[in-house]
Design goal:
Distance between the termini: 26 Å
Largest sheet: 4 strands, mixed
Radius of gyration: 15 Å
Helix content: 40-55%
Strand content: 15-25%
Structural class: alpha/beta
Number of helices: 6
Order of helices and strands: EHEHEHEHHH
Shape: globular
Length: 158
Amino acid sequence: MCEITYLDLNVNNEYEETIKKVLNQCYKEENLEDSKLVITVTLTTPENIQEINKEYRNVDRATDVLSFPMFERDELEKKIQDKDFLHEDILGDIIISIEKVKEQAEEYGHSFERELSYMVVHGFYHLMGYDHMNDIEKAEMRKKEDNVLNKLNITREN
C-alpha cells in the first residue's frame, strides 16, 4: 500500500505509524483496500522539497506537501469501478517537508500528529484527482479530508 522513504532525514517509526494509519483509512474510505495501488511517501527537508518544487512545478519555494499522481481522476475512477487491480500500480508520490509540518502544527496550535495526518490525507486526495483550485473543488476535497481525519479521531484539537 505504501512505501516510506527519507531524503536527508533519519527514519522515524512514529511518523511511519501515523502515515500508515491515515493511508489505511483513506484506502478504506475510497474502497481501495483490495487494490494493489501503491503510494510512495517521501519525508524530507524544506531545501529538498523546494528543489523538487522548482524542478517539477517551476515554483522556486519550499512548501509543505507535494503530490504527483499517476492517473487522471476519470481514469482512476474507471479503474476503481472496474476493479482493475490485477497488478501493482503506482497511485502516485507524496513528498512532505517534516520541518514545515512542525512549523505549521505550532502555528495552527495543534499536534504534530494532526498536521502530519492532514498532509498525508491532503496528498492522498490529490493523488485521487481532487484539487482546490476553486471553492467548489476545495469544499469537496475538504469534506473527504475531514471525513478521514474524523473517523481516526484526529481533530484540530489534537
